[in-house]
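Consider the following assembly input.
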Amino acid sequence: MNGRLRDQGPTLLVATLAAAFGVALLQVTGILAAVLAEDDVTGSSGTVRLMLGIVASVFITIAVYVSAVVTANTVATIVAGRTRQIALLRLIGSSARSQRAAIAREGLVIGALGAALGAVVGSASAWVLGEVGVAQGVIPSVERSLLDPVVLLPMGAVVLTTWLAAWTGSRRVLAVRPVQALGNSAEADLDEVSSRVGRTVAAWVFVILGALLLVLGVLVGLVRPEGVLIGLVGGILSFTGIVLAAHRVMPPVLRAVGSLFGGRPAARLAAENAVRHPERSARMTIGIVIGVTLVTTFAVTMESYRTMLTTAFADEPALQSEIGPMVDGTVAVFSALIGFSAVIAAVGLVNTLSISIMQRTRELGLLRALGFDRRQIRAMVLVEAAALTVAATATGLVLGVVYGWAGAQSMLGSVGGAPAIVAPAIPWLIVAIVVVAAALLTLAASVAPMRRAARVSPVVALAVE
Amino acid sequence: MQIQPSDLGLIARVAELGKRYGSGSGSVTALDDVSLGLRRGEFTAIMGPSGSGKSTLMHIMAGLDSPTSGRAWLGDTDITELSDSALTVLRRRRIGFVFQSFNLVPTLDVRGNIMLPFELDGRRPSRDEQEWIDELVETLGLGARLRHRPHELSGGQQQRVAIARALATRPDLVFADEPTGNLDSRTGREVLGLLAAASARYGQSIAMVTHDPIAASHADRILFLADGRIVRDAGRSSAEDISAFMLGMETAA
């Protein structure tokens, strides 16, 4: 049990990050609400407080969802690597059900630990932020306790989802047969793609319905700005569909990206490695896709909005100079809030990739024995990491530009009085930041496995387990 | 064990080879003053009980491990002090491996696995080599399987692919480590027959490490190792003779 908990360090980190994010966001919202209550104009209005709460819970939900996907993936990857050990325990009489329950229990413990740690970290960050705000004179000093019971909500959500994710991720324990403990070491590559028909059908329905609503939103937007509300529903539906169908959507993208790295053996093997466990790769990348898509969508919409405003107020430079900082500020705050889930997803990717590669020690030894030199092994690991991050960010950027344009078009298409086509304005700064972040992530994800993989001795390929 | 200067037909040779693991009183001697030569074109079996040092000997001869004392040559190349990258290129071009657990790359199909040594070298097979590969594929009965992945093949088929991969570059020496260890006896016999044929028909030098007397009975020459020393150097022998000698070694020990 102790050994198992040690494997779960990254899961604890993910749970802590999600809980800290949720708690900090709610605490900051609380502080802002307290500040607003002091204010004469807004104090009487409960709407502002409600809006703040809704916005915060949307971000928290995204973060918690991404962390659950990451946790499920980590657990599934660890379970895949422990097949022999699980089979051995099954062989000497342990039931699959009890083994799975043990893993789920670990999830519960780690979720609770992460929630508690996250509450402390999150509250502390919010308190520091508040104090800094007061010291800088940005907000007035208000009395507010940090022991707000509302923070129990994200904490509870983290505990619950970590538990559930551990349960979901451990599904493959049930498929391990006791005889696998005796089998020879010639590993069959288990294809993890399960044919969950229901999920695929639901995903298709969401995507088609969502796309239709998006189109409708754009059309309505040509005459009335309310089109954006239809488009919003369409966007949420279709994107949910894409996330649900990640195991169908991501592998082709990964294959396409992988082929870009050329036909040299290290690159070709890396491209294959990136899709050898399609379900695992899909879950490794989807969190980043979600983050990049949302950030890009929002940034593209706002950028288009800014372009329209600057054109509209071309003869009023005073107004123009006020638009810039407002748009930039909003984009920055929203990007940071959404980007946090991408950070959680990145932690998951780094960890899962590292485990996956070390589970292939024997194969690495074989390649060394056959004549792969250390440089080629390192290149192989780097290209595999790059294939994953490039596929994720490219997908996110493309989806984000499409959604962002649809949003801008349906919101602004009728503003000029006559129906007009709004050209999508690309926020190059945000795109550049996303690309740099992806490059950094690639390096972060590959540095440790690269070193360890290059150290594998060819003798392990000859050794019999 | 005699290595005569006139014995020019050697493909690999080790002299006064020693290998110790650990140091001080806790050290273990895996090889103790081993000298031997493998003749070109011969199918040699290296036999011995577990812990006799046969795997260590093979690792050193294949450039996968370095000896504590003594030297090892592949052809005329002294491989004892080659750098890691030089050894990598040596393995790629001049050595083939057949493993007990087949060890194919699971993400590559049969063709990809066979061609891997060429790709690692960054070149395409020449026309002559391509004809050789086609012949291998034909002889090993893999023609209909070229697009299959390893997990779609039986153990015997996987080992045939491994043999094709090992022979494809016509290496100086093929090392086979218990090649029949994971196969049923009929498939195992087939695989041994293929190795023996590669040696007899094409002059391929093969060194096979095994503790199975039946496997060793397919070889032209059998070296027996015990406690890190060569204890017998025999020509082709029947499985019964080999078993009898092995049993004698056990009782003497």
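Chain B touches chain A at residues 55, 58-59, 62, 64-65, 84-85, 88-89, 91-93, 97, 99-103, 105-108, 116-117, 119-122, 149-151, 155, 158, 165, 177-178, 181-182 (CB under 8 Å). Ask yourself how this observation constrains the way the partners meet.
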